[in-house]
Amino acid sequence: MSNQDIREELSEIFSSIKESIVLCQELGLEIPGAKKVVKHSIEDISTLEELKDYLDGCTRCALHRDRKNLVFGEGNPNARLVFVGEGPGREEDITGRPFVGDAGRLLTRIITNGMGLRREDVYICNVVKCRPPGNRDPREEEMKECLPFLRRQLAIIRPEVICVLGRVAGKALLGQDFSITRDRGRWFQYMGVPVIPTFHPAYVLRNPQAKRPVWEDIQEVMKRLGLELKAKNG
Ligand code: URA
Q1: How far from the centroid of its chain's Cα atoms is residue 123's Cα?
Q2: 69-225 has which CATH code?
Q3: 12: CA distance to ligand 1 center in Å?
Q4: Would you list the domain boundaries of the chain?
Q5: How do residues 170-196 score in pLDDT, each as one tens digit?
């Protein structure tokens, strides 16, 4: 058994002990020596740091098994604009930061060169917080477990615009009928916030002809935010 296996097994054992203590305490049973475990619902969490701590060591879905780091999200907690991707890739898993690989570098260029903002002015996160092995699409059940945390992030930040990146994140937020080719560049609502989907930067890297529509979508975002256009293309 590797150290990683032992760590995971211990983490699962501790989680299930904690769950049992919480259950006993909820039933009014005294457990000698046990500290009062405060289990609050995520609805009670009002800051991103607290939410991040709450998610620490998460074992809710199978993605925890292969992850090196949970990738919570980063940026301005008061951001007017939030980008939502599908899930961490290899470099994100290694660093614990969203969008830092090739696709991330393109997203950063869109934000800085295209929009004239700094990366730290916006907030960047994903539907699932742990890397799907081999960068496969996150599964339905994995997204279902993780979505409440994205929803809480959005409820805490309360951005003016959400830009959803790609098919998978689009479907997660806007429903199974969502089609990236048909629906990109259109305005939707999610949790009362205007949402615009655009192509995922990884797709743009593979399909340079997608640059133009992405730039058009970004201009829509800027218009909605009342920002001045700084460049002619991304
Ligand atoms: N792709 C995503 O969807 N999210 C990341 O954080 C990186 C790549």
Answers
A1: 10
A2: 3.40.470.10
A3: 27
A4: 69-225
A5: 999 999 999 999 999 999 999 999 999
